[in-house]
Design brief:
By secondary structure, this protein is an alpha+beta fold. 52% of the residues lie in helices and 9% in strands. It has a four-stranded antiparallel beta sheet, with no helix packed on it. A hairpin with a 5-residue loop joins strand 7 and strand 8. The model has no long low-confidence stretch (mean pLDDT 94).
């Protein structure tokens, strides 16, 4: 058998013909041989869906193609044994090349090189995402891992393939991906590491599900920070993207553009703080995934910046502009650390703009207020059914106070000219959320857990969070990472224990997301008042 030295003898033809099928084990594989109308076929005996034995399946003719079809009787998945196509179901059934000599059956059981398998695996991941099949996404990632390809490559592919399917630009999917992938580099547990890649892929799939491609302009112009900011302010996405294309052509990278992007995010109290968070996480995501995602992530971010809501233009936050215009220069004085607790939006903005305190002192005091709000959130607002739409607040609104502060500290430390905007917007957070707190909230049961013990418990919850909506698990990881960074950076801050207490309460309290009665009542009230 010249050239067949790597093939494996399996059985004699008569062994298969006697019963029409035969299961054999060789080289760690369980193989099913079938005698079909089209000849002998060899395939994996384990259904690629959930591993049930295909030897217990049904072999028949596919009426549409007259080819042989193997059906797994557990979930009715069907495989065309002639073309290799999966007719019903998702995953691909592996078949093995066969040769026969003197009635003896030989199979080529060698696994193709990883590089040859990569395109098919990436295609499989894309299909799993399009079907929003969470368990298949997990299986496909495990297949990457099995052949020695870093599953991170699947995340890179997911980012590139879907960056133009977010209708209004960047979402929590990319922001959380930055934290999940960072966490993957810090864990040695194989299952936890795979989780860190599965979660962002699942989140990207959710946010892009059934969305068409929203094309970005092909225009390109020389990079100009001033013109870029003007384009974002004018909500001119094409012009803003043209500047990003020009920047890429000039060889600029995220670090070269971060100041302009941060200025665009802080130009308004925008998108309830999401814009600044996304700018910060964009840098982290590019650091983790490399230059392959540079342009796609920047395009998605810039679309988000041009579509961002601008809360400082609505009555609730309209005093922000006056506070910024009357901002007093920094001195080295300190401010009372609990001064912002319970202040309204207007009061908090006024206090911050007139304080003349050092930026660090102001940051610590505003962080204190946002942590206090977070720990004292009045849970009755999670379940109310008779209040106005403006009172539809929940746990995730309070986590933003922490993740936004984390973005402010990082961005403004690198670009100090942005501190006034960042600090005043932290005051917007604290003032708004203060309205939904319970000053008498008992916290004793959540207090006193040592830092490392609490972080260990939270990590255990994170890796088995049981949340269906990716946006919830995205907030869980983003809050944890932001809190860890702030606890490490502000090691002497007086609010350290209060943050741990708030985290303990939050991670052990269910997050309510579907409000059936509230939604129906508010919809009826709204429609009743329509002209």
């Amino acid at each position: 058998m010249a050239g067949m030295q790597d093939w494996t003898y399996i059985c004699d033809r008569q062994d298969v013909e006697a019963t029409g099928k035969k299961v054999v084990k060789a080289h760690g594989k369980q193989i099913l041989l079938l005698n079909t109308d089209k000849g002998l076929v060899a395939c994996n005996n384990r259904c690629p869906h959930e591993g049930f034995p295909l030897s217990e399946g049904t072999l028949g003719e596919n009426p549409s193609s007259k080819s042989c079809t193997l059906t797994c009787n557990w979930h009715n998945w069907k495989f065309d044994l002639e073309s290799g196509e999966t007719l019903v179901g998702g995953d691909v059934l592996r078949q093995y090349p066969m040769s026969e000599e003197d009635g003896k059956i030989y199979l080529d059981l060698r696994d193709p090189p990883a590089e040859k398998q990569r395109p098919q695996l990436l295609s499989n991941i894309r299909q799993a995402m399009e079907d929003y099949d969470y368990t298949r996404m997990a299986r496909e990632l495990a297949r990457f891992e099995k052949i020695g390809i870093d599953p991170k490559e699947a995340v890179i592919e997911a980012v590139i393939e879907n960056h133009n399917r977010f209708e209004y630009g960047m979402t929590h999917a990319y922001a959380a991906a930055a934290d999940w992938v960072t966490l993957a580099s810090e864990t040695e547990d194989p299952s936890q590491r795979l989780t860190c890649f599965l979660e962002p892929i699942n989140h990207i799939a959710w946010d892009s599900l059934r969305e068409p491609i929203y094309p970005f302009t092909d225009q390109k112009c020389d990079w100009s920070e001033e013109s870029f900011l003007a384009a974002v302010e004018a909500e001119d996405e094409d012009q803003a993207i043209a500047h990003i294309r020009g920047a890429m052509a000039q060889g600029l990278r995220y670090t070269d553009l971060e100041l302009a992007l941060a200025k665009a995010a802080f130009a308004h109290y925008a998108d309830f703080g999401h814009s600044a968070i996304y700018v910060y996480k964009t840098g982290s995501l590019i650091d983790q995934l490399g230059d392959a995602v540079l342009e796609p992530v920047l395009f998605s971010l810039v679309r988000g910046l041009t579509y961002q809501t601008r809360e400082d233009l609505i009555p609730e936050f309209r005093s922000y502009a006056d506070a910024l215009s009357s901002w007093q220069e920094e001195t080295q004085t300190s401010i009372e650390q609990k001064v912002f607790r319970g202040l309204s939006i207007r009061q908090a903005l006024s206090q911050a703009s007139a304080s003349e305190a050092s930026y660090q002192s102001l940051f610590t005091a505003l962080m204190d207020a946002n942590i206090w709000n977070f720990g004292h959130f009045d849970l009755s607002y999670e379940s109310h059914t008779d209040l106005k739409v403006t009172d539809n607040v929940g746990w995730l609104d309070f986590t933003h106070g922490i993740t936004f502060a984390n973005a402010v500290r990082n961005l403004c430390t690198r670009h100090p000219e942005l501190w006034p905007q960042g600090l005043l917007q932290m005051a917007c957070f604290s003032g708004r959320n203060a309205s939904y707190t319970d000053r008498e909230q008992g916290l004793s049961q959540w207090q006193g857990v040592p830092l490392q013990d609490l972080l260990q418990k939270i990590n255990a919850l994170l890796f088995d969070h049981a949340q269906f909506e990716p946006i919830v698990s995205g907030h869980l990881i983003k809050l944890l990472r932001a809190s860890e960074e702030e606890l490490a950076y502000n090691i002497d801050a007086p609010w350290q224990d209060e943050l741990l207490t708030a985290l303990n309460r939050f991670y052990h309290t269910p997050v309510r997301r579907r409000h059936v009665t509230r939604t129906v009542k508010q919809a009826r009230d709204f429609v009743e008042l329509e002209d």
